[in-house]
Design a protein that fits this description.
- The structure holds two protein chains of two kinds.
- By secondary structure, chain A is mainly alpha-helical.
- Helix content of chain A is 66%, strand content 0%.
- Chain A has helices at residues 3-19, 28-33, 40-49, 55-58, 72-87, 91-99, 101-121, 137-165, 173-185, 208-237, 248-273, 284-306, 313-330, 338-355, 358-366.
- Chain B is 29% helix and 21% strand.
- Chain B folds into two domains: 7-235 and 399-460, 3-Layer(bba) Sandwich (FAD/NAD(P)-binding domain); 241-394, Succinate dehydrogenase/fumarate reductase flavoprotein, catalytic domain (Flavocytochrome C3, Chain A, domain 1, Alpha-Beta Complex).
- In chain B, helix 1 (14-25) runs parallel beside helix 11 and helix 9 (326-333) crosses helix 10.
- The chains are: A mainly alpha, B alpha/beta.
- Chains A and B meet through helix 1, helix 4 and helix 15 of A and helix 5 and helix 8 of B.
- Bound molecules: flavin-adenine dinucleotide and iron/sulfur cluster (2 copies).
- Flavin-adenine dinucleotide (FAD) binds at residues 10-16, 33-36, 42-45, 47-51, 153-154, 186-188, 211-213, 215-216, 219-220, 253-254, 396, 424-426, 439-442, 445 of chain B.
């Protein structure tokens, strides 16, 4: 791990630990206050608990020009990206995509090209209807099954390494439930007081980013569910595409696509309005490229649905499937991976909380009431 | 030139903002003149963390109740009776309605989570600390139509008989004057003016560190006192604590505090102990070391602890110096090594049975036969590595200020000044002459800021 990034995060974490004013904002601070010395693993865990809401930046009395130069959201964002790059498998690939939108665009173009080629050379076996008239189902499976499995394997490898780094223990169901609960509501994005985060307009609290992110996440999950439903219908029930409007894949997929397109568009606007200096500047291009890729997946999917019956269909099918392919393959190496790491960090945090159950945390509080909040001015 | 504003508020901290919002809500056109740039707006208020609040039952984040009598008794304990009972009770009583008002104006409190129980009862903690409070107030004030001018340094208020006729300030190297109907002074104390502090305290003050803003230099205070505005408080009084000697000259804030004295021995630059580190003077203990260190040569002290005590206190902003031997530590701190050794030896020999050691209670584990004794938590310093911190005097605020009445109104010996009010640190001496109760500074600023805003708006109407 680059010493300067982690060392800078450590320096700042130590100041926060002496200050503790931000205790109520998010999960980072209670976890931070439990340590006195920060190992690289501690800092990696803290970094993955942070979602760059920036509450603690605008509230901090020590931001530049103050000589303490606090910018915890940025310090953690840098450690976070670095941790994703380091734990990704293969790591060298990740380094490119996290910090560089151009590589993502290139991957996208490669995805298009591949699909064109496949459609062109394999085409359909002649008998297919709808999309299968352009590309047979078997050809589609031949391309997408590996593209879907590879990221799963890659992420599984990464998460195992990550779990070791952050000192995770045996996972029990309650930990997972705790982690999922936090993620489902994106509770931390609301900040401790529920007014949201300070993203797009300095210290103004707003829920915009939380809602945009919800749209993206649930939109994505709906699209994913639509695809899964289609697959199950295909193999389980012999019901083949194209599906009508009132079929499960469409009922899930269309709202999903709309949410995903709207959410990613909104996210781009918020990101453009935000102060780059309070995040990881190196990741900006990669993140933006990723959001745009996701947006393209959604929009091309919707357009494909709209032009389904026309001669434009094969072209759009290639564009859409090309983007889906790139998206899948890039999952372990782009911002998309953050969901997995963050969930792992939340599960780890649930473990921390239960390790430090009420009694022990009260005891440790008890160790410093002399020092505690009592007599400070 | 008559001002387009009814009211000019001088300062940009808690008291100023409370006054400005209240006046604007009453319909007045208000201008805030804040001497600092935007990044440093909010004076000492940006360093605060909590607000002490009376309450008859659970209120917001506060549990149980905290009565006027109990609050007042707590105040008397720390001020040694130097308290204006009438104004103090007014502040205490009004604090209860302030808390919901603060929430309405954007302040968010931390739910009483892990904190110590006794404080969850008396003090409401701002989520994100004082700067988030200040940010919220600026947003609300701007919504209410209050104008804010940063880097606007007020130099003079013209007092003519019983009213202020003019406010002079500089902004972007230009002199400006304005003639509002009412003026509210909320520009803090004078602790950042080292020369003034030195005049009041003597030479040692040059080595003091200022825990808060560099902008509270008492310019307006001095200007008004020179024109005969009634003063209150003793210029030699300031609230000072011992902080990490490596802290910056200004604005080090809360993180420079050191809580390790009870588990240490503290020596001066000759490596001699000079005070009972285990004395129970709570709640004054924290404040007493500021003065003790101020009275040592070069106004510096050195805390020595050993490995077994390291985790007993809150960490501070800088890690301690660390060495395997006392000699090495002495070298790092520029202390005479032989002397430090013999001081520690003498201390260690004077320690007795330490089995009753208890870090969170007065454990009576004391030394025998040395001067000064250590009357609690006295454990020999034997276990390497050894750790050291330097200590300096950190000034929180000064007490000298403007004398005000129930309406936060200022006066001269001839009577009230018709259009001048004061709020916050700049008039806090009207209420407490010495000592300090955690969270009371924000109470004074909020209560009297709102009163000043109300009165100034009524006068301007
Ligand atoms: C580190 C620290 C922690 C503290 N913690 C707490 C706490 O937890 N709870 C509590 O109750 N109290 C606390 N206090 C005390 C508290 O800060 C003060 O009591 C309170 O902030 C005073 O508010 P104020 O508005 O009067 O002054 P300030 O907030 O200091 O505001 C004064 C303003 O006047 C401006 N100014 C000064 N001169 C001029 C001029 N000539 N022209 C224009 N503007 C001028 C300054 O820039 C500043 O904005 C703390 C103090 C410090 C230093
Ligand atoms: S970010 Fe700043 S205000 Fe918040 S805990 Fe850290 S040092 Fe304190
Ligand atoms: S940016 Fe938000 S999530 Fe990250 S540490 Fe600060 S308050 Fe917590």
């Amino acid at each position: 791990m680059p010493r300067d990034l982690i060392q800078e995060a450590r320096r700042q974490a130590e100041i926060c630990n002496a200050c503790r004013y931000c205790e109520g904002y998010c999960s980072v601070f209670p976890a931070l206050h439990q340590e006195r010395f920060f190992t690289d693993g501690n800092l990696t865990q803290l970094a993955n608990l942070c979602h760059n809401c920036r509450g603690c930046y605008y509230a901090c009395q020590y931001t530049a020009p103050h000589e303490f130069d606090l910018n915890l959201p940025r310090a953690l964002a840098e450690v976070r990206r670095e941790s994703w790059e380091r734990h990704a498998w293969p790591a060298s690939v990740a380094r490119k995509f996290h910090s560089n939108g151009t590589y993502i665009a290139a991957a996208l173009v490669a995805g298009f090209a591949l699909l064109f080629l496949v459609i062109h050379t394999l085409g359909s076996d002649g008998g297919g209807e709808g999309f299968y008239a352009a590309l047979s189902h078997n050809a589609m499976v031949a391309v997408f099954a590996p593209a879907f499995l590879f990221p799963l394997v890659s992420i599984a490898v990464s998460l195992r390494k990550f779990w070791k780094t952050i000192g995770g223990e045996r996972i029990r169901l309650v930990h997972i439930a705790g982690g999922l609960g936090m993620a489902a509501k994106m509770k931390d994005l609301a900040a401790g007081h529920g007014d949201g985060c300070n993203f797009e307009e300095e210290d103004r609290f707003s829920h915009a980013r939380r809602y945009a992110h919800q749209l993206v996440m649930y939109g994505f999950l709906l699209c994913f569910a639509a695809t899964s439903a289609g697959t199950i219908m295909h193999y389980g029930f012999g019901l083949h595409a194209p599906y009508g409007f009132f079929s499960l894949p469409k009922l899930l997929g269309i709202p999903g696509g709309l949410m995903l397109a709207g959410g990613t568009g909104w996210m781009v606007r918020l990101k453009l309005a935000s102060d780059r200096h309070v995040g990881d500047q190196n990741a900006w291009g990669g993140d933006m490229g990723f959001i745009l890729l996701l947006c393209f997946v959604a929009v091309s999917g919707l357009v494909l649905y709209a032009v389904g019956g026309t001669g434009l269909m094969p072209l759009l099918l290639a564009l859409h499937l090309g983007s889906v392919l790139s998206f899948f393959l890039l999952t372990p190496f782009t911002k998309m991976a953050h969901g997995f790491y963050r969930l792992a960090a939340l599960v780890r945090d649930a473990q921390r909380k239960s390790e430090h159950s009420n009694l022990s945390s009260m005891l440790s509080r008890h160790m410093d009431p002399i020092a505690g909040k009592e007599n400070r001015t | 030139m008559t001002s387009q504003y009814d009211i000019v508020v001088i300062g940009g901290g808690n008291a100023a903002l409370c006054a400005a919002m209240t006046a604007a809500e009453a319909g007045a056109r208000v201008l805030i003149l804040e001497t600092s740039p935007k990044a440093y707006r909010g004076g000492n208020s940006r360093h605060t963390r909590n607000f002490r609040c009376m309450h008859g039952g659970p209120l917001g984040p506060l549990v149980e109740d905290y009565s006027e009598e109990e609050y007042f008794a707590d105040l008397l304990k720390v001020t040694g009776g130097k308290t204006d009972e009438h104004l103090a009770r007014l502040a205490i009583r009004t604090s209860e309605e302030c808390l919901p008002w603060m929430e309405e104006h954007g302040v968010r409190f931390q739910p009483s989570l892990s904190g110590t129980l006794s404080l969850a009862r008396t003090n409401a903690f701002f989520m994100g600390g004082g700067k988030s409070l200040v940010n919220a107030y600026y947003r609300t004030a701007e919504k209410l139509g209050v104008d804010v001018l940063y880097e606007a340094h007020v130099t003079h208020l013209e007092l003519d008989g019983d009213q202020i006729t003019r406010v002079d300030y500089t902004h972007k190297d230009q002199q400006h004057r304005t003639e509002p109907r009412s003026v509210i002074v909320a520009s803090g104390g004078f602790q950042a003016d080292t020369d003034w502090l030195t005049r009041a305290w003597g030479e040692p003050a040059k080595n003091f560190l200022i825990r808060g803003t560099p902008y509270n230099r008492g310019v307006v205070l001095a200007d008004l006192l020179a024109q005969g505005v009634s003063q209150v408080g003793d210029p030699t009084q300031c609230h000072a604590v011992a902080i990490d000697g490596r802290a910056p000259k200004f604005d080090g804030g809360i993180v420079t505090r050191l809580d390790c004295v009870p588990f240490s021995i503290v020596v001066n630059k000759y490596a001699e102990r000079f005070y009972d580190e285990g004395e129970d003077v709570w709640p004054k203990r924290y404040a007493i070391w500021g003065r003790l260190v101020a009275n040592q040569p070069d106004q510096v002290g050195y805390v020595i602890i050993d490995a077994k005590s390291l985790e007993l206190f809150m960490p501070s902003v800088f890690p301690p110096l660390k060495a395997d031997t006392l000699e090495e530590l002495a070298g790092m701190m520029d202390l005479p090594a032989d002397k430090l050794h013999s001081t520690v030896d003498t201390f260690n020999t004077a320690c007795g049975d330490t089995s009753a050691f208890h870090p969170t209670e007065l454990d009576g584990v004391a030394t025998t036969g040395i001067e000064p004794p250590k009357t609690n938590w006295a454990r020999p310093i034997t276990e390497p590595p050894f750790y050291g911190y330097s200590l300096r005097t950190g000034v929180t605020f000064t007490y000298l200020g403007l004398k005000v009445d129930d309406n936060a109104q200022c006066s001269t010996e001839h009577g009230k000044i018709r259009n001048l009010w004061a709020a916050g640190e700049t008039m806090a001496g009207s209420i407490l002459g010495q000592g300090y109760l955690a969270g009371f500074g924000m109470t004074i600023g909020t209560v009297f800021g709102r009163i000043a805003g109300r009165e100034a708006a009524a006068y301007a109407a």
